[in-house]
Amino acid sequence: MGDLRHPLPVKLFFGMLTPEFSLFDACAEILSNEYGPLDYRSEVWPWDKTDYYRTEMGTGILRKFIFCERLIDPAAFPAIKKFTNTLEHA
After folding, report:
1. Left, alpha or beta for 19 (phi > 0: left; psi -120 to 50: alpha)?
2. Are strands 38-41 and 10-18 parallel, antiparallel or unpaired?
3. Degrees, nearest 5: CA angle 37-43-48
4. In angstroms, what CA-CA distances link 73 with 7, 11, 70, 78?
5. pTM for the complete prediction?
6. CA–CA separation, 52 vs 8, rounded Å?
7. Percent of the chain beyond pLDDT 90?
């Protein structure tokens, strides 16, 4: 039988979808203020493999990922999800 142990810290990253290019930098600033410096930002590319979000977001949707520098305790995920849900609806 294995021993119980605390989970290891994990890399926090965010996937962003928007048809408004300017929102990437605005959201990255908010998220880095909340969760610390970013150490990587992906390129932006079209989200054109599915029309899943078309009703909600329209056409011309773009995709980008940002990654936080410091590792976090995965127990923080529920609070982070609540924060990002609030950000989505702002």
Report:
1. alpha
2. unpaired
3. 130
4. 7, 9, 10, 11
5. 0.89
6. 34
7. 84
Amino acid identity at 50: T
Other C-beta atoms lying within 10 Å of the C-beta of residue 81: 10
Per-residue pLDDT at 1 exceeds 80: no
| 42-73 tens-digit pLDDT | 999 999 989 999 999 999 999 999 999 999 99
Among 39, 35, 32, smallest CA distance to 76 is for 35
Tell how far CA 40 is from the center of its chain.
12
**DSSP sequence for the chain:** -PPP-PPPPEEEEEEEEES-THHHHHHHHHHHHHH--EEEEPPPEE--S--TTHHHH-SS-EEEEEEEEEEE-GGGHHHHHHHHHHHHT-
